[in-house]
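Hi U.,

Before I forget, here's the chain from the pilot set. I'm dumping it here mostly so it's searchable later in email.
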Amino acid sequence: MAKKPARKPARKAASRKAPASIKRRSMKDFCIDMHTHIRVGPLLDYVRHNPIKGDGPGTEDWFAASSISGLGERDKALWPMLTDPKVRLREMDRQGVDIQVISTNYPVTCYWMDAHKGLEAARVTNDTIAEFCAAKPDRFVGIGSMPLQDPIRAARELERCVKELGLRGAWINSNIRAKDLGEQEFRPFWAKAQELDVPVFVHPLGTTDITRLKKFFLWNTIGQPYEEALAMTSLVYEGIMDDYPKLKVCICHGGGYLPYYIGRSDHAYEGNSAHQQDKAKKKPSQYLKRFFYDTVIFDPDMLPYLVKKAGASQVMMGSDWPLVRTDAVGYVRRAKGISEADKQRIMWKNTAEFLKIPL
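Structure:
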């Protein structure tokens, strides 16, 4: 019998109230980091007892073996930052970050597992995130992992996360066992996210098209932006963004490739693909303002471009910390061509509104 992940009973839910200490801080320099990760020890133990089998979609073959080894070595070096709230708080103070949005990363979604095991993995992950956030509820806000190999279970787990654990949204992969996010079977989950009025954060874990991307860390540098473009395109063309008009979706890493090459999609939509217009009511570029984005795009020229295309109200400061160690705060503050008012929106106001963080 497969070992169940260890779960502590009666974990304290994340707080929904902002304490006075937050309210007294100068909002001019305030910062909320939308994109950060922790590791969940009980989940890693569970995965060891429920390993990936075979190859193809949903397996570690989506990551090159050398990359898996590299991730393990990196985690060892970063483990205190990935697991200890006190260490994390010291680093946040050093960076000038007031609040972090806490999510997990590899192997969080566990989509290779059957539906029952996938739910167990998600529940232990989400309980741990809530417990982590409860260690300092004025500085940590959590979003939960969803077992989307079963959309009905995922919808129920989202409701539990919001109503029982105090988490403020969902974290999902860019595809579910090589199925695109907009496909019909996943609609119960999207409907529940709209009903609860909580956002969904889309974050790829490698890529399904791994054959040519095993060398040079390409599964990450090329494959993940490609996955993000596919996720956005699926949600547009399958009608999700039209059929759920109040749905809030954030695509990490600045939306991948799509916002920066959207003209080609518009050309195809308007010129030669009647089937593209079957469910998507507008050309693709008109949906850019429906999505939200983080600022993990590195190139200083691209942030003003993203703001121009999507609008300053749709962009949120993010670091991918501690897995990416850059000056994410300075990246936004030094950006050229963005007004100070818009920088404040990006630094904290948009995320506070997106996740309903009372400040």
